[in-house]
Amino acid sequence: MIEVPGVSGFEEEIREYIRNQVERLGLKAEEDNIGDLITTVGTDGPHVMFIAHMDELGLIVSKIDDDGSIRIRKIGGIDDRTLVGRVVRIKTRRGTVHGVLGLKPPHLMTDIDDRKKVVPWQEVRVDVGTRSKKDTEKLGVRVLDPMVFKKDITYITGDIICARAVDDRAGCAVLLDSLEKLKNRKLALRLTFVWSVQEETGLKGAKVVGFSLRPDYVFAIDTMTTTDAPQMGEVFERVMVGGGPAMRMLDNAAVASPKLRKTLELVADEAKIPLQYGTGGGATDGAAIQDFGALMMPIGIPMRYTHSPTECASIKDMENTSKLMVKIAERIARDSKRR
Question: Which of 199, 237, 265, 311 is an active site residue?
Answer without folding.
Answer: 199
